[in-house]
Design goal:
This protein is α/β, with parallel strands linked by helices and 228 residues long. The protein has a single domain (2-226), classed as Rossmann fold (3-Layer(aba) Sandwich). The protein has helices at residues 7-11, 36-52, 75-90, 112-121, 139-152, 170-181, 216-226; strands at 2-3, 21-24, 57-63, 94-99, 101-103, 126-129, 133-134, 136-138, 158-161, 168-169, 187-190. The chain has a five-stranded parallel β-sheet with strand order 1-2-3-4-9, with helices on one face. Strand 3, helix 3 (75-90) and strand 4 form a beta-alpha-beta unit. Helix 4 crosses helix 6 (170-181) and helix 6 (170-181) packs parallel to helix 7 (216-226). The chain starts with a strand and ends with a helix.
């Protein structure tokens, strides 16, 4: 069963008729969200889902940002950590995947990639913290890799970090987007920015060679701009 209707839910639609696995993909998607009501809505729906599916494997998507010193105190990250703890304490079988920035065809304006893409396509100024880095992953690869992990039956009751490739500086990300659009957007640099590492040792055996390629991040960016 799949709970949700966003990018992740659509990617995992193959599990819609699976009676043993619950793909919980109805989480808060805006990492800048501050509304307690929005977070509580996810918590209530998750609790209801768990109570109705006691003997099933629950798949929950958290965030790699729990490792980002600049973001670890944010409402979004604290909510994700609290949800992880709740699942660990109340679910018999689960896998929590901590995801980086998932890039795909979506109208969600709150993703970092879409935020920059929308501003740069309009030649608007972009402000970037000069030390900021991020991990990117193609939504197609999220399904491809994570479904293998789920079906392997090796990681029940685990939290798995899901960096698929090398991290990319946000400055580099913006430069690539600018080149694709041939944009004249000005870049304003500010101090700060999270630069953190993600331990992907658990998921590494399931990754394709292309995900280790130094051009993987650039290929994702170009894919989801050129296919608009």
């Amino acid at each position: 069963m799949v709970v949700g209707n966003g990018l992740l839910a659509k990617a995992f639609s193959e599990y819609s008729n699976n009676n043993d696995v619950i793909i919980y993909a109805s989480g808060v998607s805006n990492s800048t969200e501050k509304s307690k009501e929005v977070f509580q809505r996810e918590t209530n729906l998750l609790k209801e889902c768990i109570s109705k599916n006691k003997n099933k494997l629950i798949i929950y998507f958290s965030t790699c940002s729990v490792s980002d010193v600049d973001l670890k105190g944010s409402d979004y990250v604290l909510h994700k950590l609290n949800t992880e703890k709740f699942i660990q304490n109340n679910v018999d079988k689960f896998i929590i995947f901590r995801l980086p920035i998932v890039v795909g065809k979506t109208d969600n304006k709150f993703t970092l990639f879409n935020f920059f893409k929308n501003k740069i396509s309009k030649n608007e100024e972009v402000t970037i913290q000069k030390n900021a880095t991020r991990y990117l992953v193609d939504i197609d690869d999220v399904f491809k890799v994570l479904s293998k992990v789920i079906n392997s039956n090796q990681f029940t009751n685990c939290i798995i970090e899901c960096s698929f490739s090398q991290k990319i500086s946000v400055i580099n990300m913006v430069d690539i987007i600018k080149k694709v659009y041939n944009s004249s957007s000005e870049i304003s640099l500010t101090e700060g920015g999270g630069n953190y590492d993600v331990d992907n040792s658990m998921i590494s055996p399931f990754l394709d060679d292309k995900m280790h390629d130094e051009n993987y991040n650039e290929s994702i960016i170009k894919k989801y701009i050129n296919h608009e």
